[in-house]
Amino acid sequence: MILEYLMITLAGFLGSYHCIGMCGAIPSIISYKNFWIGNILYNLGRIFTYSFLGFLAGLLGMYFHKFEFQLIQKGLSIFVGVMMILFGLQITGNIKEKGVPFLDVVFESISDLLSNFRQSPFILGMFNGFLPCPLVYAFLMKAVLDKNPLDGMLTMLFFGIGTVPAMLFSSKIIDMISPTSRKSLVKIAGIIVIIFGILTILRGFGIGHHH
């Protein structure tokens, strides 16, 4: 279990270099009396949202786990595993992210909304936690399979902790690490997600199942 949480944290750490491209500019709009306190509050807000979503995902998983039909449970494991692999392939760049109509307009509207909370970094971080991201979706799928609200929350908590270094130093990292290097780090995160997906499918077939 400890190794699993370490892997989740590592995936969050490596995958967050993908997040810099999407959300890296958000910390720059923070207007707070102390730069570091403001950024720490912002990251705590993100982790709070991830943990909350993990709790809900674990609750959903627990609900499905209560069904007596093993076929439903196995089907859910296989479905979640396949989805995790697809998200992993999306993160590694093997599957192109399909454009969603009017997504640019939506993000522009979100940016305008977030700018209203530049003096409330914790709330800014909370909103940021809801932004669409294949890496977040992948570990929310994992949280569903935890079948327990607390375990689901811990999965997303450790994932969130892993993303902190990149988001905390996003402005410096953009200058220090080349786009090619960032892509390589993100690919490793995608591979970790794919491994979790494969293990989840195997558990769905009763291979390597432990409880």
UniProtKB/TrEMBL annotation:
Outline the extent of the Urease accessory protein UreH-like transmembrane domain. 8-199
**Pfam families with a match to the protein in the record:** DsbD_2
Q: Which residue ranges traverse the bilayer?
A: 6-26, 47-65, 71-89, 122-140, 152-173, 185-205
On the tree of life, the source organism's domain of life is Bacteria
Q: Is Transmembrane included in the keywords of this UniProt record?
A: yes
Alphabetically sorted, this entry's keywords are: Membrane, Transmembrane, Transmembrane helix
Name recorded for this polypeptide: Heavy metal-associated domain protein
Origin organism is Sulfurihydrogenibium yellowstonense SS-5
| Organism taxonomic ancestry | Bacteria, Pseudomonadati, Aquificota, Aquificia, Aquificales
